[in-house]
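[Automated response] Your request has been received and processed.

Submitted sequence:
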Amino acid sequence: MNLWIVDPLKESFSNNDNLTFLNTEDQKILKLLTGKEKNTVLVLNKIDKISKEQVLLSISKLKDLANFSEIVPISALKSTNVEYLVEIIKKYIPAHPFYFEENQFTDVSERFLASEFVREEIFIRLKQEIPYSVAVVVEKFIDSTKCINIACQICVERESQKGILIGVKGEMLKNIGVAARKKIERLLGNKVHLDLRVKVLNKWSNNKNHLSTLGYN
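Generated structure:
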């Protein structure tokens, strides 16, 4: 199935040539879709910018271009007809066997998810100060029926970032740990002891050895 999205057409349709209301890029796309029209859903976007009369006229002109399977007017900005478009797309997507078991929600490990919860809380609180200079590595993950012990090392690139991350009297790091621990406990269904430590790895994001050590292969 093909999905072709076009913007509002030109207001004047006096010319008999149906292609004149398409811009140059859309005309190229139309040529690429030749012979595939019946497998193409055409989406007229930004209908919030034109009148109802223009919407109807545009659909009429688009119908004259080719025998498309569907023509759906939407406004992505205002979510007009977006749910309907999703249902239309589902109708043309073939069924496929599950890639994973029905009760399997992810293909990554619990260790990885724990590190991502910690990194998420860092981004939520420090997205201005430390945008993408943080990596989180799980150094210890000991599973127990009573409590799961997890130790994470948070790597930053500069000493100043370490200070921001720890915060005054360690308050920032403590808040990050509390929020991340609660999320990990909900995920694992067990009590969690979470130990966070901060380490400076100078310019780790530009160092191949550091990237490999941190799991960014």
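Summary generated for your ticket: Helices lie at 24-32, 52-65, 82-92, 110-126, 159-166, 171-188, 208-213. The chain has seven helices and six strands.
If you did not submit this request, please reply to this message.
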